[in-house]
Amino acid sequence: MTYLSTDLCDGVFETLKHRQSPDLKPFMPFRINGVYLGLLNSTFTHQIAQDIDTIVPDEVCFILDNLSWNKVGETLQQIAKKWHDNGLYNGWRDEKYSVQDLSGSHLFALERSAFRPLGLLSHAIHLNAWVERAGERYYWIGKRSSTKAVAPNKLDTTAGGGIAAGETPHTAMVRESFEEAGVPSSFTQTLTQNGQVYSLRPVHRGLHREILHLYDIRLPENFTPQNKDGEVAEFILMNDTQIAQAIINEQFMEDSVLTLLISMQQRHKFPATHPLNLLLQQLQDIDLMEKYCQKYFGK
Questions:
Q1: Any idea which architecture 6-23+122-284 has in CATH?
Q2: Which of 13, 125, 199, 260 is the right S-S partner for 276, CB 3.0 to 4.6 Å?
């Protein structure tokens, strides 16, 4: 077993710790039909009070009750479109995600770009593809297109993307793997998840709050990923040391950092007692991370 150097572990930890488990006190909880679902920053706290007549603001949260879940979805879809058209946020995708309660039950579908303004919990997949050369693992790293609405030109995992309403994580992984990296379904059809991690951080258009479903795959030596949908500019091979240094240099998209580090953690690349290892363990405890958010719901 060969650990990454102490300097690299320390550097990655310092980079990561400031971006996870943020202070959510500035965010206003959003309760719908008795279920706490969202957290809004000051911009959207002000806006939602103006745009939804039936919403009830009190001292600790916004409350929207007495609507069917379908009607909730329609109402928030209309508001999100208005916000986008008025320039409050960008990146409208005309694709819906599933809004779920804490048990994972579907409540309603909503435009994916509205999840951050409303601080809703979304789900995504990430695929780490790799090859082994001279006994060392090299990951296929994608460089995001300059036209991407989120993190253009940043380094990324081999494939990643949101889980659309009605999709399973596995279905989304098979689809995204082919669209973003040309990995055929014959390679991924029997692939199983190797973990989950909770990604939580304020962003310019609200709150990113997402569960990442993780997959690793070893690709044949003669296979090179090829992007199909125009979202990836190129693929390069990087080993653990190169990836760690690029993380410290802030060259990676945020969620791919977590995905790659957990793949390394599963290969015991960090000492068990190092703070980086302990932080990654915490972020993989989905219940613990949701409880972290819930304490702000009851403020």
A1: Alpha-Beta Complex (3.90)
A2: 13
* Rounded CA separation 154/145 (Å): 8
Rounded CA-CA distance 262/197 in Å is 8
CB-hemisphere CA count at 13 Å for 269? 22
The DSSP output letter for 274 is S
Kindly give, in sequence order, each residue whose CB lies less than 8 Å from that of residue 163, ignoring residues fewer than 6 positions away: 97, 98, 122, 123, 124, 125, 169, 172, 213
Q: Where are the domains of the chain?
A: 6-23+122-284, 28-118
CB-hemisphere CA count at 13 Å for 138? 13
Across 173-227, the runs of DSSP E, i.e. the strands, are 195-203, 206-218
Q: Is 3 exposed, middle or buried (0-12, 13-18, 19+ CB in 10 A)?
A: middle
For residue 18, what pLDDT is reported?
Answer: 81
Exposure of 12 in the CB half-sphere (CA atoms within 13 A):
32
Q: Which residues of 39-64 are buried (b: 16+ CB within 10 A; e: fewer)?
A: bbbeebbebbeebbeebeeeeebbbb
The CATH T-level fold of domain 28-118 is: Transcription Regulator spoIIAA (3.30.750)
| Burial readout 182-194 (b: 16 or more C-beta within 10 A, e: otherwise) | bbeeebbeebeee
* pLDDT, tens digit, 9 for 90 and up, residues 233-271: 999 999 999 999 999 999 999 999 999 999 999 999 999
CA 13, 18, 19, 22 torsion-angle sign: positive
How far is residue 214's CA from residue 125's CA, in Å, rounded to a whole number?
6
In the chain, the percentage of residues whose pLDDT exceeds 90 is: 85
As a whole number of angstroms, the distance between CA 299 and CA 293 comes to: 10
